[in-house]
Amino acid sequence: MTTRGRRSGGGDTRTEILDVARGCFAAKGYDGTSVRGIAREAGVDPALVHHYFDGKSGLFAEVIGVPAGIEGQIAAAVAGPPEGAGERIVRTFLRVWDSPEGRARFQAMVGAVASHEEAAHLLRDFVSRSVLTSLAHIFGDDDVLPELTVAAVGAQLVGMGLLRYVVEVPPMVEADPEEIVAVLAPPIQRLLVP
Amino acid sequence: MTTRGRRSGGGDTRTEILDVARGCFAAKGYDGTSVRGIAREAGVDPALVHHYFDGKSGLFAEVIGVPAGIEGQIAAAVAGPPEGAGERIVRTFLRVWDSPEGRARFQAMVGAVASHEEAAHLLRDFVSRSVLTSLAHIFGDDDVLPELTVAAVGAQLVGMGLLRYVVEVPPMVEADPEEIVAVLAPPIQRLLVP
User: Fold this and answer.
1) Min distance B146 CA to chain A CA atoms (Å)
2) ipTM > 0.90?
3) Rounded CA gap, A171 and B128, in Å?
4) pLDDT per residue as tens, chain A (194 positions)
5) B157: which chain A residues are within 8 Å (Cβ-Cβ)?
6) Are the beta carbons of B167 and A113 separated by less than 8 Å?
7) What angle, 0 to 180 degrees and rounded to 10, lies between the N-to-C axes of helices A55-64 and A117-126?
8) DSSP letter at B144?
9) What are the structural domains of chain A?
């Protein structure tokens, strides 16, 4: 007889689910991974995975280090009248990352991406699937923005994050969020609505 | 009697000069560090430092991993008629980093900056002193651009580099340099000449 089997929770279960999820996402990508499969491999009930994490996308966000709920925030920023899209997107980016915890996460994410091919792969998957797809369809499904335009919007945001949270270039660190919105929203707006 | 004293060169001397330089730049910053001081601490003749590296700025570039001669390239991109500045700046950035060696350097630089406070400090020093100062004076010494505007230009470039060389988001990787110039030069141009 053995004590192995489905676990009912406890301190290390959450960590173990995360470890298993990291391996699954890296090996099979986002689409090829299921909560059921992760639960089976971790030896827990799928309900426990949902208890700890907000479904597959929440689990994935946790694995790559982006804040939970980020996909909803992106969707909310993209929705609304086209003329304010640039401002809403820059404000959302700052709201997500501009706290001490957000800064630390951004730093960790950049470090992981730069040093681990697996992390770069996972982040690429997230950015392509979630961020770029949302932005591309900002004006509806019939009027899709070119992929490179969308990637250029993403580049402006992550570049600002890199200088503000990682390299810490003084003018970018000292600016308050609304000053950054004033400088960065117009170029993003013009890319979205030329 | 001892064999210690000034060395005349050899395999490890270059590496040792770099190690000493790394420590000096980190401890005293760019302005507080001299070739003479590095040479003294490394136990070599200052001429040997000049022989291996292109003066203080070349040595500093080598320490932080940016290609030698980058300051001259930035100066050349910034010089010339204002109306083409955005295009020249994006083309220069791509020429510096878009080779296999450049990509590897960019990756290493991002990794170092994300994981070592010292590297972030050195890169911040380089970006502030060299890149941002050149850009701020793009239209002469009397017409200086706001620091935050200049930092936003830098953010667009490093963000593009991060997505093209590190995260490797497909539309940014697959675009040829002139496609990137077409998308990224206009926003940069409008920041420089509103």
Assistant:
1) 9
2) no
3) 9
4) 344 444 454 568 888 998 898 888 877 777 788 999 999 999 999 999 998 887 888 888 788 777 777 778 888 888 888 889 999 999 999 998 998 888 888 888 888 787 777 777 878 887 877 777 878 877 776 778 888 999 999 999 999 999 999 889 999 999 999 999 999 999 999 998 87
5) 159
6) yes
7) 140
8) P
9) 13-63 (1.10.10.60), 65-192 (1.10.357.10)
